[in-house]
Amino acid sequence: MNKGIVNVDISKGIIDKNIYGQFAEHLGRCIYEGLWVGEDSDIPNTNGIRNDVLQALKDLSIPVLRWPGGCFADEYHWKDGVGPRADRKRMVNTHWGGLVENNHFGTHEFMKLCELLETEPYINGNVGSGSVQEMSEWVEYMTFDGESPMANWRKANGQEKPWKVKYFGVGNENWGCGGHMRPEYYADLYRRFQTYVRHYGDNRIFKIAGGANVDDYNWTEVMMRESTHLMDGLSLHYYVHPGGFWAKGDAVRFDEQEWRVSMQKAYHIEELINKHSTIMDKYDPDKRIAMIVDEWGAWYDVEPGTNPGFLYQQNTVRDAVIAGISLNIFNNHNDRIKMANIAQMVNVIQAMVLTEGDQMILTPTYHVFKMFKVHQNAERIALDLDVNKLEIDGNQYPQVNGSASKQQDGTVNISLTNADIDNEAVIQLELRGLTVANLSGEIITSSKMNDRNTFDNPNKVQPLPFKQFNRSGESVQVTLPPMSVVMLTAKD
Ligand code: AHR
């Protein structure tokens, strides 16, 4: 039997709300169609941003949003995306589908989106094909409050007051699409570029260096050795591709073997976090530098018949469980992980919402993010689990994972997942120090592993009340159905 202890009196620090961050790239139908329809669209919108998507995303309380890429960031020239829209330069989006990018969604539109979502902007600058001057001027344009060429230009473009920009990424995947650099070379470039990412007035920028791909520990070693004193965060990217990068597997038409491989690969991120953290600890024992997992998620082959460069995929209950596992792992590493950004927010990879014309559906992953938002900025409390192991291809992974936190009003939330496709997971949980009386639950699950929401059946997978638990005194026995994500809430 699985068992565990929740100890409300043992604090493990705050779970940074930014772990529930999102990522929106100029890729496929994420920005255009998914978010931006333009002010003249028949689709109801606010300043060109579609209202249905906006409202759905607002309900997630998204703390931080990364933009404009991804690979796109290192070929994006921000000056092409400001000023009157009709005059903006058209460019080819070479990474993603080779389509014409009309630059109608630029800095002002992104900042408006952040304002409407009440989210913190995280801008990713261009190192791969940009210049130091270009990056420096972007920061000046956005944040300088005074008389300067860039600030004057911003004002002429309709934004009198500077915006607040806290998070700034200096390049993206510079080991790959961001320039195919060696870590030594990028470390030097990082040092140079970040010098000109200025703190204007009281706008303090949190500088994020481009980090490793998956298990490239040498990259982390070199970056930490060479640039620790000049960065605030170091990124890490990891995707779950059940079939590997080149034949990732289908998002919907998969078998039980693929389900199990997906779960095992979702759990694998914990090993990466541990090993990269060990290197970071060597150079930064006080954990000043944050690990920023600014791209993560399950990435499959595109939906049949869609543009291969658009990365449009469906989202099933498998994705809900992957999201639950990952978020629990991030919560449990809150000492080092201060931000994570799932890829991506709309219509791309493991999306929150999917759109088709004027229609929108919420994905199972969306429901997990909504369910888990109670952990944002809550105090993590000790949860020790001793659980059964599952196995695929000689690799073991836990049947159950979880994390627990306490909100300011004393409400305790325990999130649990069951990765097992066949068996329920019975867990005996000791509840130490839990004074609040009422226990309730919510669950995301479905009877078939590839159940999903579609435009014809938009609520096939959605949160439902969960009652399969029995409390007696200081313990509770919980029965998690196969393939499920559960939130238990204790409050008065
Ligand atoms: O999220 C899709 C792409 O994956 C990003 O543009 C890139 O950074 C990563 O390889």
From TrEMBL:
Q: Which GO MF terms are attached to this record?
A: alpha-L-arabinofuranosidase activity
Determine if Hydrolase is one of this entry's keywords.
Answer: yes
- List the protein's name: non-reducing end alpha-L-arabinofuranosidase
What are the UniProt keywords, alphabetically?
Carbohydrate metabolism, Glycosidase, Hydrolase
Under catalytic activity, the entry for this protein gives: Hydrolysis of terminal non-reducing alpha-L-arabinofuranoside residues in alpha-L-arabinosides
Listed under subunit, the entry gives:
Homohexamer; trimer of dimers.
Which SMART domains does the annotation name?
Alpha-L-AF_C
**Biological processes, Gene Ontology terms:** L-arabinose metabolic process; polysaccharide catabolic process
Q: In which pathway does it act?
A: Glycan metabolism
Q: Which organism is it from?
A: Amphibacillus marinus
Q: Where's the Alpha-L-arabinofuranosidase C-terminal domain?
A: 294-484
EC number from the UniProt entry = 3.2.1.55
Q: Which enzyme type, at the first EC level?
A: hydrolase
